[in-house]
UniProtKB/TrEMBL annotation:
Pfam families: DUF5624. Residues 67-196 form the DUF5624 domain. It comes from Saccharothrix syringae. The lineage of its organism: Bacteria, Bacillati, Actinomycetota, Actinomycetes, Pseudonocardiales. It comes from the Bacteria. This is DUF5624 domain-containing protein. InterPro entries: DUF5624.
Amino acid sequence: MRYQPNPHFMRLFEMFTSAPDSIGQNLQQRLGEAHSDSPLLLATGTDLVLFPGGGRPPTSVDIRKGTKGFFEITAVSHLGLAIPYLARLRELGDLGCKTAARELIAQCRVVQDFNSVSYWRDEVAVTAWRGHEEKITDLVDYTCATTADYLERAVENPKLLNFEYMRANLLEGDGADAVAVPFNDMMAATFALSALDSLHRSLKWLHEQSIDWARLMVIVAGRAGRPSAGLTWQTNNVCPLLYEASNHELDPARLIIAPTAPAIELEQLTDNEASARAEAQYRRFWYGCLSSVEMSRLMWPGYPAFRKGIDQTPVVDSDTEVVDAMPRVRSVHDKRAIVTRLRYVMEDPGAQIATAGMQFVLDQLSVNGNRPELVEIPGFTYTTYPVGSRR
């Protein structure tokens, strides 16, 4: 028989913590009411939503998948992984890998034919990429052409799918049969271009909101990439973004990462009553997580306090063999750190993949007044891609 606690003890437990009218629930409600005019920012995997407080309506901005150019540039970035993944499938005896390779070749050719400067300049029209459209067109044409050519040859010559050969000639670009631009550079460039767009727009929107950062309550809600990713300050994209946007005024202790927080659809915010209910729900959730912080400071002020660590960025040198946190990129030429970040986000299940291209771009936007034209992009700014066939 399953154990059941004594009901008298259970009632004693519930009176403090779990009953709807418990002491703990009552304190959380009172704290929420006392701070109902404090701004609350909700960050999801795709959006930032600001509840200004005091009954004012929320505002929001799409920071990822709903934006122009995200899927296009990410699709091209993935080609740097597609060939090694197909090679591994072949090693594992997958009978469909040749068919998959031929389908990928065909789609690369389709994208090559469609790719043009006018598409990137007039249809995608990403503000942060303005002035880079010709080079992006060249990068896309080169990557698709090289992928298709490499796979066409690999279907006939499996030597090209040997990992030692691929590392030297496709990824690193230091082998005897090296491609014109190493795919490590291409992946670094596409990651950084994607980050440049999302960070520029997010910073612009955040700066326009006149946020009282010292009082801001933040909930980073829901899934962000892999189910295991983005659960700490160091591995979540939003945390450094908000910290830089606030000019380091945001109190890290007021930010909680909560994968279990309730989901929200932006359509709800267009209805005043539904929006008010959602805001009240998130305020209760925030105080449900952090009301104990206030109490601990009142009860034990003379004991060591907890402080959330936000800077764990190792430097990668030529003799570095292992990192236990995302390394810092010191310059656009710090290729070892740039590629280590690519490996890190794939190797650490807790890391968000998009984080690979963020830090160096965010640092530059922060010191240059959010001017994307002043940002140096790894694998792009000082890299020459062959002129595309559809310029």
